[in-house]
Amino acid sequence: MAILLQFCAFDSLVSRFIAYGTEGTVAHVDAVDDAGNLWGAQNETGLGGKPSGVQIRLEDYGDSCGMTNRIRVLVSATPAQEAAFWGFMRNQLGKPYDLTGIAGFIAGRDWHDDGAWFCSELVCAALEASGAIKKLETPANKITPQELLLVCSVIGDVVK
After folding, report:
1. pLDDT in tens, 82-132
2. Residue 59: DSSP 8-state
């Protein structure tokens, strides 16, 4: 059993800023379900036909905005951990995007609001809550997509 994560960047100014600011090649992360749908937090209203926030989007939603640098990583998980991960993600659906957390992240402040999420904050919190990864010394709300890719590629398998 495993949890599949998809890391990527988009052809947009915000995505390039995130990748540059985190010294990485990715700026976003989603969890991929068995049907290929992508679960995650996006700030772009209407992206993939969904509002901003935590949503399930179709696998190809990024094609319309130039998804680049797609990297997929399988994180090993027991059946119980996998169920807990998806249960956590399901409970977050519809919650808003965490703009305050992003602002706090950039300013170096320790923001965290479980009522709103940005992408790597959401996925990291779900991985920690499920026990698929150990609790990180860096709070989930401080981890960038690039840092989460590093953590997951060390413990998981990159499958591109």
Report:
1. 999 999 999 999 998 887 766 665 555 444 557 888 899 899 999 999 999
2. T
Q: Provide the b/e sequence for 114-136 (b: ≥16 CB within 10 Å).
A: eebbbbbbbbbbbbbbbebbeee
Complete domains list, the chain, with CATH: 2-158 (3.90.1720.10)
Sign of the C-alpha dihedral computed for residues 139, 86, 118 and 10 taken in this order: positive
CA 96 to chain centre: 14
User: What's the predicted TM-score (pTM) here?
Assistant: 0.88
**Helix residue ranges, H only, 27-118:** 79-92, 99-107
Question: Distance between CA 58 and CA 157 in Å, rounded?
Answer: 23
Name the strand (E) or helix (H) holding 6: strand 2-10
| Adjacent-strand bridge partners of 40 | 55
Give the CA dihedral 143, 10, 38, 81, nearest 10 degrees: -20
